[in-house]
Design brief:
- The chain has 13 helices and 7 strands.
- It has a 7-stranded mixed β-sheet, with helices on both faces.
- The longest helix is centred in the last third of the chain and has 15 residues.
- Helix content is 40%, strand content 15%.
- By secondary structure, the chain is α/β, with parallel strands linked by helices.
Length: 317
């Protein structure tokens, strides 16, 4: 897709994220999920001439939008890299950076990804059932559905979509495939799910949870999040901020658990007189969008932003 097209994205919790993240305007910051650059542009406005912003995105179209045409960023303090934030440590090492003053992760799917039928993220438009954030590698959702058995499909739809009719959906998908007509488009998937989900939540398309589950699985989103959070401890300078915006309970639970586990001293019961494992983070805030933002951007309704700060204790010199 041409990055100069009309796909638009409204950045969620923009001011709140920048206020929480930037403590040292002359510092080095990482936008781990560039998207269409809403947070990055606001970050650059906040940084001093000595500051530096390193942006990352898995989606080659996002990287192209940052480097080509009218949406490109030409600020010399800015660079963007086609990779995942799970690979933060080797990326920074390749750039000669050992410590950063802030890491921002805005999880989920951007509006240009959702609104482009060719990407296959939404049941609102019929298109190829792809769902890959990085279209240059990996298995598409359609390819996964073409090989997975009932057990695999049930586990994915149940665990990542929290769908109580996961078994019924899985059986319907396999039955359709075995009939010689496998699901290949978003419209076909939506129709199969609608026939298998017997009761529907008010105001929610019956395919919502299955689409979420397949997207999370295809992109290994939860595993990538865990790796990125772990990497943050290796790269954040003392006093550096970790800001994570999540959009569903599975993501937020991982972030909440990670921050809580790193925000306390841990004693080894097997060695009662040993020094405890040092606290490495301090939880700062949990922020939800205000009523005005939700009215203006309904997609922000489920967002939760968590902020933590790297402590002085236990940080290598």
């Amino acid at each position: 897709m041409d990055p100069r097209s009309d796909w638009q994205h409204t950045t969620v919790l923009l001011a709140e994220a920048i206020d929480a993240l930037v403590t040292t305007p002359a510092g080095i910051y990482v936008d781990g999920t560039y998207g269409r650059g809403g947070h990055s542009r606001a970050l650059l406005e906040r940084l001093s001439p000595e500051g530096r912003l390193i942006a990352i995105d898995r989606d080659p179209q996002a990287v192209e939008a940052a480097t080509v045409g009218p949406t490109r960023i030409t600020d010399p303090r800015f660079s963007i890299h086609h990779t995942s934030f799970a690979h933060l440590v080797p990326l920074l090492a390749s750039l000669g950076v050992s410590r950063v003053d802030g890491l921002l992760l805005d999880l989920g799917v951007s509006s240009p990804q959702i609104d482009n039928p060719e990407r296959g993220f939404s049941f609102r438009f019929d298109g190829p059932l792809d769902m890959r954030m990085d279209t240059t590698r990996g298995e598409s959702a359609a390819e996964f559905l073409a090989r997975a058995d009932v057990r695999q499909l049930t586990e994915v739809i149940r665990d990542y979509g929290e769908e109580r009719f996961a078994l019924q959906v899985a059986k319907a998908l396999v039955a359709r495939r075995e009939s010689g007509n496998p699901v290949r488009t978003t419209g076909e998937l939506s129709n199969v799910v609608a026939g298998a989900v017997k009761t529907r939540e008010a105001g929610q398309n019956p395919a919502t949870r299955t689409f979420q589950a397949l997207r999370i699985f295809v992109n290994a989103e939860l595993e990538e999040l865990e790796q990125g959070l772990s990497a943050s401890l290796d790269v954040l300078a003392p006093g550096g901020r970790l800001v994570v915006i999540s959009f569903h309970s599975l993501e937020d639970r991982i972030v909440k658990t990670f921050v809580a586990s790193e925000s306390k001293h841990v004693f080894d019961r097997r060695a009662p007189f040993a020094e405890p494992k040092a606290m490495r983070l301090q939880s700062i805030a949990r922020v939800k969008p205000g009523d005005d933002e939700v009215r203006g951007n309904p997609r922000s309704r489920s967002a939760v932003m968590r902020v933590a700060e790297r402590t002085e204790v236990g940080v290598p010199a």
